[in-house]
Automatic annotation (TrEMBL):
Belongs to the ABC-2 integral membrane protein family. The keyword Transport applies. One of its GO terms (cellular component) is plasma membrane. GO terms for molecular function: ABC-type transporter activity. It is found in: Cell membrane. It is a multi-pass membrane protein. This is ABC-2 type transport system permease protein.
Length: 367
């Protein structure tokens, strides 16, 4: 028995060591992905986008902004002439907070009197919104202490009037529900076409199909269309669950389904590309999870993308989940339409086309 067991173990090791796909996946998962995910999962929220509307333009208002941007909590993205322009950018998701300093702010501060300023925080991601609000309150208190230690003591402090948009109570339920809507569709859309196409190879039915009148592009489309329709149909029960969880729907369903279609197309293109590079179901599943986990970590659902190193922020733009999450939160919580979300739609198309094109070329050569 020991001799037979030794032979079986040796055979399994030989098969694994001869399989370049498995060896690459083992190397990737234990090295590159460990580094990537460790650096991506950082819960210290920093480098948040800040918009400024300064109606005062005084030394005191500039000092307040310098206090907010001196550390790594906020980055001043842009100054706006009106609050409406800043609110539009907040709705697009390019900013996390907007500070509006009223006229006369500097005169009140210089006179030692209390002064206030307005703040709007994007609360669609409750964790980021809560941190942004806390940072602003802390920085306003620090600015007040700094002025109080100067030559002109203050009888009142500098108080921010903070309003949280899109998720006023800063609960994680809404963001988590929308996050799971995107993640569930993504996993299904990657695994279904990968498993379906590789199963044809492994069972030998692909060889039988080749002798039929079916052409390569017909089979290729036949493996793409059903997973898209199934995962797109699965959105309906998810919408019912999200509704029962109390997540409001501020946008329109047409925009949501168009963006969901583009998102699922990008996910299916990943699954098809994986299937063309693998020959067994085991390889396909390993490769699918190899693509799922880094894209999940880079989506901003676990840790804010702005808190990641710069090279990871660039890499995160290749994650369909990032654009899907921005799209669904934009439609549901912000009431955004294609005017605000078209960059994410364009990114999803840009992800899908090369993968589908590469998958088709490899499949056509194998056919």
């Amino acid at each position: 028995m020991l001799g037979r067991l030794q032979g079986l173990i040796g055979k399994e090791f030989a098969q694994m060591l001869r399989d370049p796909v498995v060896l690459f996946l083992v190397f990737w998962l234990t090295t590159v992905e460990v580094v990537m995910c460790t650096m991506a999962i950082g819960f210290d929220v920093r480098d948040l986008g800040l918009g400024l509307v300064d109606h005062d333009r005084s030394a005191a208002s500039r000092g307040l902004v310098e206090e907010m941007t001196a550390g790594d909590s906020f980055i001043l993205r842009r100054q706006f002439a009106t609050a409406r322009e800043a609110a539009d950018e907040l709705r697009k998701g390019t900013l996390h907070a907007v500070v509006e300093i009223p006229p006369g702010f500097g005169a009140r501060v210089d006179g030692g009197r209390g002064a206030g300023f307005g703040v709007i925080v994007d609360g669609s991601n409750a964790t980021v919104g809560a941190r942004a609000r806390a940072y602003i309150i802390e920085m306003a208190a620090r600015f007040t202490r700094g002025r109080a230690m100067g030559s002109m003591p203050m009888s009142g402090g500098v108080e921010p009037s903070v309003r949280v948009w899109y998720n006023p109570d800063l609960t994680n339920t809404r963001f988590s529900a929308l996050n799971m809507l995107a993640q569930a569709g993504f996993m299904l859309a990657v695994i279904l076409p990968a498993a379906g196409l590789v199963r044809e190879k492994q069972n030998g039915t692909l060889e039988q199909i080749r002798v039929t009148p079916i052409r390569a592009h017909e089979l290729f489309l036949g493996k793409i269309i059903p997973p898209i329709l199934v995962t797109l149909g699965s959105v309906f029960p998810s919408l019912l669950v999200i509704r029962l969880l109390g997540v409001p729907m501020a946008g329109d369903l047409a925009t949501l389904f168009l963006l969901e279609f583009l998102f699922l197309l990008s996910a299916v293109s990943i699954g098809v590309f994986v299937a063309t590079l693998t020959s067994t179901l085991q390889q396909a599943m390993l490769a699918s999870f190899f693509s799922l986990f880094p894209l999940l970590f880079l989506s901003g659902s676990i840790a804010p993308v702005d808190s990641m190193p710069r090279w990871l922020q660039v890499a995160a733009q290749a994650s369909p989940l990032l654009h899907a999450l921005e799209s669904v939160t934009g439609v549901f919580l912000k009431g955004a339409g294609m005017r605000e979300l078209w960059p994410h739609a364009a990114a999803l198309v840009g992800i899908s086309l090369p993968l589908l094109g590469g998958g088709w070329l490899i499949f056509r050569r194998q056919w």
